[in-house]
Write a structure and sequence with these properties.
Cell wall formation. By secondary structure, the chain is α+β, with helices and mostly antiparallel strands. It is built from 8 helices and 19 strands.
Length: 308
């Protein structure tokens, strides 16, 4: 029996067979529609399964990658070796008084809508963010003046060793589009948000306005990773790219959006290599024209495709 066959047998002893896919195309799990295959694509259904899979990867020295819902991510064309875990089946949202507890795989959009249903204010900013709750904590996601750290009270995580850990929000070092979650290798299982009582119509009006702004200004008709770059101090990334006359610039099937210069869209079956090359071209051009270094907000993971 090969090592991969042995690993497969152990994985399906931890979780259901339906939750373990071999050579799964990651382009089917990313908003950019980019990326090669995962050796093992695993979607556990309980916290205990997550812990056991993490411990297995450690014990067998198997590469391990956590994949959110793929909204702020580029997977390279060569795919990802070892185990790729997606927590999409851990997606429950519960509300207890003014606290909202959302599992990692739930969409942060759905968390904001659940808060609205209970007349709770504090998550309106998230009504247009396409990421998962786990991904939102990972990068302290934000939009339109709000961010996760404004409402997050605590998180339940799994450590690199597979142990459960309860952390206060302050222990995550949340700052602009970052946290210490990747530094520690934490896997977020759930987040608890402390919200405030509000008026349904007022909360909905804010969410409707933010949804309109998002839909009218962002190129949602094409696959993309969302905002590619962080906002540089004193500037707006999209304005710098626009002023560099890069809107419409295309490498292969990847294009700087004509609708919003801060987005790169997959308009014609782009490869990850083309998409990444265009990111680099934008960075180099803006640096040359304005002396500003654009820092990526999007994560790039995986291996390059080996060309024969």
């Amino acid at each position: 029996m090969t090592a991969n066959a042995q690993l497969y047998d152990i994985l399906i002893s931890i979780t259901a067979k339906k939750n373990v896919l071999l050579n799964e195309a990651l382009r089917d799990h990313t908003y950019t529609k980019l990326g090669g295959d995962a050796d093992f694509y695993v979607t556990p259904e309980t916290y205990e399964e997550v812990q056991q899979i993490v411990k297995l990867a450690n014990k067998e020295n198997v590469p391990f990658t956590l994949l959110g819902n793929g909204s702020n991510l580029i997977v390279k064309d060569g795919g990802i070796r070892g185990i790729v875990m997606n927590l999409q089946k851990l997606n429950k949202i519960e509300i207890d008084g003014n606290r909202l507890i959302a599992q990692s795989g739930a969409r942060i959009i759905d968390a904001s809508r659940a808060a609205l249903d209970k007349k709770l204010t504090g998550l309106e900013f998230a009504c247009g963010i396409p990421g998962s709750v786990g991904g939102a904590l990972y990068m302290n996601a934000g939009a339109y003046g709000g961010e996760v750290k404004d409402a997050l009270e605590s998180a339940l995580v799994v450590t690199r060793e597979g142990e459960l850990l309860h952390l206060a929000a302050e222990e995550l070092d949340l700052s602009y589009r970052t946290s210490n979650i990747p530094d520690h290798g934490y896997i977020v299982l759930e987040g608890t948000f402390k919200l405030e009582a509000g008026e349904y119509d007022e909360i909905k009006a804010v969410m409707d306005d933010l949804t309109y702004k998002r839909e009218s200004k962002q190129p949602l008709e094409y696959p993309s990773c969302g905002s590619v770059f962080k906002r540089p101090p004193g500037y707006f990334a999209g304005k710098l790219i626009q002023d560099s006359e890069l809107q419409g610039k295309q490498i292969g099937g990847a294009q700087v959006s004509l609708k919003h210069a801060g987005f790169i869209v997959n308009i014609d079956e782009a490869t990850a290599e083309e998409y990444i090359d265009l990111i680099h071209f934008v960075q180099e051009t803006v640096k040359e024209k304005f002396g500003v270094a654009l820092e990526r907000e999007v994560r790039i993971i995986g291996e390059d495709l080996v060309k024969k």
